TrEMBL record, chains A, B:
InterPro entries: DhaK_dom, Dihydroxyacetone_Kinase. GO terms for cellular component: cytosol. Its EC number is 2.7.1.-. It comes from Saccharopolyspora erythraea (strain ATCC 11635 / DSM 40517 / JCM 4748 / NBRC 13426 / NCIMB 8594 / NRRL 2338). SUPFAM superfamilies: DAK1/DegV-like. This is Dihydroxyacetone kinase, N-terminal domain. Pfam families: Dak1. Keywords: Kinase, Transferase. The gene is dhaK.
Length: 335, 335
């Protein structure tokens, strides 16, 4: 069984998709072709406030381009599939998003992204734009005691950072307050993912790795890489429990605690499956006395067509929940 | 490469997913376990107006349960995967949704659905509830001159019917006006779908049919059945053109016409691929002088994990666009 994509030339894939995104949401955003970035184009797009800019490799859509709009991002910078955008792209997006109140960069912890966002921030500062960065490193599977290592990867908690900081920015929070808020969200959130089937790169016909029928890839990332180990395939309730247990331990969650939960589809996981996973997550947490204050269930941070899911838990601090509930209007998240 | 799902027991799949859906959206809807249906639970849920009820086999999520909420459905009735709900379920959902102003049933044209919704309508009428039905039959691949045949299948145009009639119902339209409006939407819309890979039934490990690497299944439905023929696999622009050409011909679309376009993912089609498809659709229509007034791009009417997409075009009558733009607040569609 070979895999095919709905694609023209793989080299044009991201650029063409950006055009299609803009054509589908002309009232919300504008896609700049070169350097490639997406910027808000709704009626509130010029109102003075701190601007939020994020980005990273493509293939994780709707992240980040689908989160451009009121209450979330002011600009998103897509690289090639699974590759960091350039510092030049990011600098251009900062310029397009800036409204004179400073720019908050939301960066997932990958070497290329960290480097290029940092260069872009420096270039913007030289031009007189205030810039702060929130580094998102929620992937518990990549925790390590290695002092000089790259640290934990950034995955689905980035959605919570963008939503919560985006809402605070709309309410007039300062750049320094937003940087602190983002750091608090990151420190309060952890994620674990598992794959039932690896993803296939655009133009390829076979997944990036093969899984035996009786095993799942545990602690997988969002770039088609191997996870930290294989575990037996089993019913959803066992897989969800196995994925969630280390998160609750790491966050020290227990009786009476409340969380914001993200059950994230990695690409080809059906809505029914994600609903079942959410049921099992609610049951597992309930067994610990942990309540679910808010949930987000769907494909928000994908790894191309990977079959699998991730669980992100964020401690439901009162201000987090209040900002989570604030209005948002983007292609992929609206309430 | 065998397929696995995130599932407990296949027999419990739909019931467990309904629980998970309610737990994720407690402010929007309530899932009744037995008989199974989903009903609005938001603040406006009791306001007098005509109620909209739809349903059908499961496996097409977010359709229909994800469209329960303000501006769309008042209740949705899920059957087992790819199987009609029972008349008893539908009758119960009608009762839960009814607010004394009558109930509009939105029914996709499949033999089981038509029969069971019709029995339920009769039962409700016997109990004094006014009921009208809109039959959705947009799938151009199943057009036939066979007078006694089942007629065209109902597919993604049902989203437009639910959105447009749902908005009109919120504005106070009468039951008979809604039935006429729904009929006009159906008459103005046609759909064609194509599969790059068949879907896999819950608990099974292999897709419902195999496709050779150089062919796609053309005119496919949303139940894992074969399409009307095989066509060569090719670039997205060719596949989109081939799918769209018969629709524009059937609707008589030409220079100066405008449409509402739905580019619908059938399950495992990535957001980037759907964006590329939307770009190619816009270009193809532009070549005919047809403008895209509004677009909806995403997985809205799925066929489990089928890889592929459908194109639905609806003539953009002024009242359709106005009602399309009206507020909607459901798990899967909000603006």
């Amino acid at each position: 069984m070979s895999v095919r994509q709905l694609i023209n030339d793989p080299d044009d894939f991201v650029a063409e998709a950006l055009q299609g995104l803009q054509q589908a949401h002309p009232a919300l955003l504008r896609a700049n072709p070169d350097p490639a970035y997406v910027v808000r184009a709704d009626e509130g797009a010029a109102r003075p406030k701190v601007a939020l800019v994020s980005g990273g490799g493509s293939g994780h859509e709707p992240l980040h381009t689908g989160f451009v709009g009121e209450g979330m991002l002011d600009a998103a910078v897509p690289g090639a599939v699974f590759a960091s955008p350039t510092a030049f792209q990011i600098r251009a997006a900062i310029g397009a998003a800036d409204r004179g109140r400073g720019v908050l960069l939301v960066v997932k912890n990958y070497t290329g992204d960290v480097l290029n966002f940092s260069i872009a921030a420096e270039l913007a500062r030289e031009d007189g734009i205030e810039v702060e960065t929130v580094l998102v490193d929620d992937d518990l599977a990549t925790s390590s005691s290695d002092e000089g290592g790259p640290g934990r990867r950034g995955t689905a908690a980035v959605v919570a950072v963008e939503k919560i900081c985006g809402a605070a920015a709309e309410r007039g929070a300062s750049l320094s307050d937003l940087a602190l808020l983002g750091k608090r969200v990151v420190d309060s959130a952890r994620t674990m993912a598992l794959a039932l089937q690896a993803c296939t790169h655009p133009g390829q016909s076979q997944p990036s790795f093969e899984l035996p029928a009786d095993e799942v890839e545990f602690g997988v990332g969002i770039h088609g890489e191997h996870g930290v180990g294989r575990r037996p395939f089993g019913p959803a309730r066992d897989l969800v429990a196995e994925l969630t247990r280390p998160i609750t331990a790491e966050l020290g969650l227990g009786d009476g605690d409340r969380v914001i939960a993200i059950v994230n589809g990695l690409g080809s996981t059906h809505a029914l499956e994600l609903s079942v996973a959410h049921r099992e997550l609610t049951a597992f947490l309930g067994g610990l006395g942990v309540g679910v204050a808010r949930s987000l269930v769907g494909p928000y941070v994908t790894a191309l067509d990977m079959r699998g899911f991730s669980v992100t838990l964020l401690r439901a601090e009162d201000d987090f929940v209040d900002l989570w509930d604030a209005p948002v209007r983007t292609p992929a998240l609206t309430w």
